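Hallway conversation turned thread

IA: we were arguing at lunch whether anyone had actually written out Helix-turn-helix domain-containing protein end to end. Turns out nobody had. So, for the record, here is the sequence (151 residues) and right after it the structure tokens. Reply here if something looks off.
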Amino acid sequence: MTPLNEAQLEQLKEISTHLRQVRQQKSIRIEEISEKTMIRLGVLEALEHERFEELPEPIFLQGFIRRYGDALGLDGNALSHMLIANVVRQDPKNTHKNLDKKRNTYIPLLITYILLLLSASAGLLHTLNPRLTAESVTPEDNNQQSIVSNQ
């Protein structure tokens, strides 16, 4: 898992403690949650026992928290957004740098797609209507042939 900052770790601790307490209050075994949510038992145990280094990336963790909360009858979506709000706000300076890099890669791709579309259209036009392309070449050839024959 990518290292989380202090605020993220604190938020994750609160969420995992809340989930564990609700599960225990409802007398639901962790194995039942694992079967119901299709989340591996080891991941659920790592989450409940705050062994965060064993957990997957935050984006996957968000889905696990959402499904776990829903299985307990809580608003899993709200729980998962509490964690992601901290993850997204982590470093706005790096986010802007990453967006600039992404914009730069889209421009060459756009040009490539346009060229590919034009060449495919020209190939399709030639394949579907070969006489049209032959006629456009033929008048020039006739003019050249008449010039050659006149000399």
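OS: looked through it. The chain has seven helices and no strands.
IA: good, adding that to the notes. The helical segments are 6-25, 30-37, 41-48, 58-71, 76-88, 92-128, 130-150.
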